[in-house]
Target: Endo-chitosanase
Amino acid sequence: MIYSRSIPFVLFALFGTGLTQSVNGFNFNKPTGGPPGSYFAAGSSIPVTALQSAAATASTAVPDGTYPINRENGAQEVTIHSDWANFNQGAAYVWIADMDVDCDGIDYMCKEDADGLNQTNFGALAAYEVPFFVIPDRFGTQYAKQLPGNNIGAVICDGKMFYGVYGDSNGATPQVIGEASWLMARTCFPNDNLNGNNGHGDADVTYIIFTGNNSVLPSSALNTSYVTNFSILRSMGDRLVTSLAQNLGLVNGGSSSSIATTTAGSSPTGGF
Ligand SMILES: *[C@@H]1O[C@H](CO)[C@@H](O)[C@H](O)[C@H]1NC(C)=O
Ligand SMILES: *[C@@H]1O[C@H](CO)[C@@H](O)[C@H](O)[C@H]1NC(C)=O
Ligand SMILES: *[C@@H]1O[C@H](CO)[C@@H](O)[C@H](O)[C@H]1NC(C)=O
Ligand SMILES: *[C@@H]1O[C@H](CO)[C@@H](O)[C@H](O)[C@H]1NC(C)=O
Model:
């Protein structure tokens, strides 16, 4: 799979301009001083609205893949779908849920997070610096082969798309779906003052998690606590989402040979 793993670098060679965001993660590890959303936003060529609509029509339920969005009695339940899980490139699971705030990892003392853990599943991530999302632990365990950890995902929130990694799982009783890091949640909903005890309650956030080793953010871009190179996260995210959108007929193309001619690697939306 050397060829596939090299695609993001090829894309960068072709399209990379002055967009490189390699960072010292420590400098961004602050509640209100995290990386700007433009560092992990989808490129302007990505058909975000069409993908969101397509996600809403997914109908093949993952066995045992239905979870409540919170722990209250009678909570709304959400089902993970596998309609997109068998594509050659851009294969993904998808669901639509709310967004609770997770601070597990080195920022577990974040505001109002009473039950934070100092580790995440694959390290001790910095929730202020890393845009990560959380999946139910049972799902992660059942599909560990497809989801080895640090898989890239695309989150569509409030009309915008951001890339993150599968960094943690929820092991509450019952296990709950719809959760993302402090950084991801507060970037999605910047006006809502979200914190460890105040999430985005409406189940209107689309989560697309890419499967397989080719979707794992490499150690050149992520260490145990920090994203160290957001350019790699963005270019891989754009490539995966573009492949998915091609498979769904939402953009032109559809064969791997066309990947390099798409605008995947294009400028992120928003300023710096
Ligand atoms: C991870 O990278 C950051 C720089 O972004 C560095 O400060 C930190 O020491 C690294 N951590 C590990 C465990 O390598
Ligand atoms: C993390 O939490 C565990 C369990 O509470 C504790 O044993 C461990 O010492 C903590 N590690 C760090 C680095 O704080
Ligand atoms: C994914 O990578 C892991 C670790 O390198 C390896 O054990 C596994 O076989 C790989 N899976 C596939 C499907 O290639
Ligand atoms: C970050 O990744 C980009 C794209 O692969 C690369 O061009 C750049 O050299 C990387 N930066 C560092 C400091 O490794």
